[in-house]
Amino acid sequence: MRRDHGSHDGKRPVRVVVEADGGSRGNPGPAGYGAVVFAADGAVLAERAESIGVATNNVAEYQGLVAGLTAARELGATDVAVRMDSKLVVEQMSGRWQIKHEALKSLAATANDVASAFESVTYTWIPRARNAHADRLANEAMDGKPSRAERQAPLDTTAPARWMGATGTPTRFLLLRHGQTELSGERRYSGRGDVRLTSAGQDQAKAAAARLSQLDFAAVVSSPLTRARQTAAAITDRVEVHDGLVETDFGDWERLTFAEAAARDPELHGRWVRDPGVEPPGGESFDAVLTRVREARDDLVRRYAGETIVVVSHVTPIKSLLRLGLDTGPSLLFRLHLDLASLSVVEWYPDGNASVRLVNDVSHLTV
Q1: Interval 294-317: pLDDT, tens
Q2: End-to-end CA distance of the chain
Q3: Which residues share a beta bridge with 177?
Q4: Would 178 disulfide with which of 89, 231, 260, 342, CB 3.0-4.6 Å?
Q5: Arithmetic mean of pLDDT, 29-48
Q6: What pLDDT shows up at residue 27?
Q7: pLDDT of residue 150
Q8: Catalytic residue among 47, 50, 247, 279, which?
Q9: pLDDT band at 31 (very low <50, low <70, confident <90, very high)
Q10: Predicted TM-score (pTM) of this structure
Q11: What are the start and end residues of each CATH 3.30.420.10 domain in the chain?
Q12: Helices (H), 94-253
């Protein structure tokens, strides 16, 4: 279940309160979470709830936190006060308690990634009686309400229009990075080399496909490389291939690690990191990638105007699309992290405005 109520006074929220809760009937057992975002005066801005299958109380509480922080980020908050009745989550997220459980480490890392978008985040423990709203949502989720389709409802597209004056119906790109390959698992440059998904990568693709199956989209468009096409094929058997979405050509650095490429060509590699116009030996510059990705974007927006499409591609093309959406410089290429099989969302408005709605979401891989 997803409800976005908008700002209570028509203005963009800045300081918000996130209350979250989670529970499990059996611990582990049927589990769910609830989260609510409040304005400073107590008005409800957004609600989130989800039944997550069999899980522990702690996993459900962490997923509630992630959902609440994500909702606050989508609302444009800059400062967030998190209040929860889970002493464990509050103390661990505050850095006072060590996180020993591997599943909780992953969820805490996801929460920290989302929280990094804010100027400040505080975590405060509150008694369960003061967390009644989120507790109610979590219990509804544990009882099987709402349905998964409702939980994965599309993003509210009215917010950018309210806040930045964008007009018209946007074309939404659901940007999905391909799953794991042998080279990505070893963190090696993997450009035009046509490697396949590992078994873990195939599982990642299936998890992403399960999430996307709850959304409506007009087409699935993929890079021509096998790893992307395999990922796209997990979503649908009707995949459109677009050459403009292919990964960077790393030339002679293909299959090398960052350190190995730097040792092989220290001066050139150093310039390449600093200057997007520099090409790897026998390869393609990031400026060239940006140009062809912009052309691919324009082509897809023209053909799917006002619709939602899934775009399955690679690190550099996806970062380039996010860079275009944010209207920012090339430093984003090295400062933004994108996980394998991660989902990002960017919208393109007919009047030239754009809105980046989601970045590097891997919640479908942690359930």
Answers
A1: 999 999 999 999 999 999 999 999
A2: 17
A3: 313
A4: 231
A5: 90
A6: 86
A7: 37
A8: 247
A9: very high
A10: 0.59
A11: 2-153
A12: 102-115, 132-142, 148-151, 158-164, 182-185, 199-212, 226-233
User: Can you tell me the distance from the alpha carbon of 294 to that of 352, in angstroms, rounded to the nearest whole number?
Assistant: 13
Q: Which strand (E) or helix (H) includes residue 345? A: strand 343-348
What angle is formed at CA 214 by the lines to CA 148 and CA 143, rounded to 5 degrees? 0
Mean pLDDT of 232-249: 96
Longest C-alpha distance within the chain, in Å?
64
Q: Which of 178, 269, 314, 364 is catalytic?
A: 178
| Angle at alpha carbon of residue 336, lines to 102 and 58, rounded to 5° | 25
pLDDT of residue 279: 95
In the structure encoding, which two tokens stand for residue 247, read together?
Answer: 């990964």
Map tokens 């464990």 to a residue.
88
**Residues belonging to the chain:** 367
The pLDDT value given to residue 159: 54
Q: What's the mean pLDDT in 11-17?
A: 72
Pick the CATH number of 2-153 from 1.10.10.10, 3.40.50.970, 3.30.420.10, 3.20.20.70: 3.30.420.10
Q: How far apart are CA 311 and CA 240, in angstroms?
A: 10
Amino acid at 181: T
Catalytic residue check, 178: yes
Nearest to 46 by CA among 4, 108, 76, 95: 4
Beta pairing partners, 21: 34
Q: What is the enclosing helix (H) or strand (E) of 35? A: strand 29-39
* Contact criterion met (CB below 8 Å) for 40 and 185: no
> Looking at the predicted structure, is the pLDDT value of residue 145 above 90?
no
Could you tell me the two tokens for 319? 């970062």
In the chain, what percentage of residues exceed pLDDT 90?
75
Distance CA 11, CA 289 (A): 38
Cα Rg for the chain, rounded, in angstroms?
Answer: 21
Domain with CATH 3.40.50.1240 in the chain: 162-366
Domain 162-366 CATH superfamily: Phosphoglycerate mutase-like (3.40.50.1240)
61 an active-site residue?
no
CA dist., res. 53 & res. 367, Å (int): 8
- Give the whole-angstrom CA distance, residue 226 versus residue 193: 9
